[in-house]
Amino acid sequence: MQLPIYLIGYMAAGKTTVGRILAERLGWHFVDLDEAFAELHGQTPAEYIREHGIEEFRYKEKYVVEDLAELPVEKVIYATGGGYPCWEDNMECLHELGTSIYLRWKPEHLAKRLMLTDLTQRPVLQGRSEQELLAFITPQLEARTPFYEKADYIIDAPVKDIAEEDDKNIAEKLYQLIVNS
Fold this sequence. Notes:
Blueprint: E1 5-8, H1 15-26, E2 29-32, H2 33-41, H3 45-52, H4 54-69, E3 76-79, H5 90-97, E4 99-104, H6 107-115, H7 130-148, E5 153-156, H8 165-179
Parallel strand pairs: 1-3, 1-4, 2-3, 4-5
């Protein structure tokens, strides 16, 4: 398995939580690319998008990924933003830089998980009910799926109702995948 590892997937797929658990278990570094973006540009992705627009954000986001890839550290788990893989040639970029892993969830589970988060940090979702979230997520996830499925590996989330243990179980699956590769 080529290092570093990039976790991809829709909002609330657990990229950050799973990434932190996995990195700790492996003794590796963890980088949330949204947090790295904020550190480098002085604004969260949401703030940057509000001020400069999505296209300018995607352009800057791409350079954050490429700049971090040049650091002399290989044992890193990166959590990408949900839309990162779907812009221009970003999936090809991830293939060149390391290994991508898609955390795949059903839309209804993503809606439930999103309802448990602070939606003010996700301007496009702010103020939506769970049903409205599902109506928003479903077509967007369908449009993104062809990009996500270009990942080197796909990890399916549990099919039961969401639980706190899900992220730990996904991290364990990833741990086994990595140590057995």
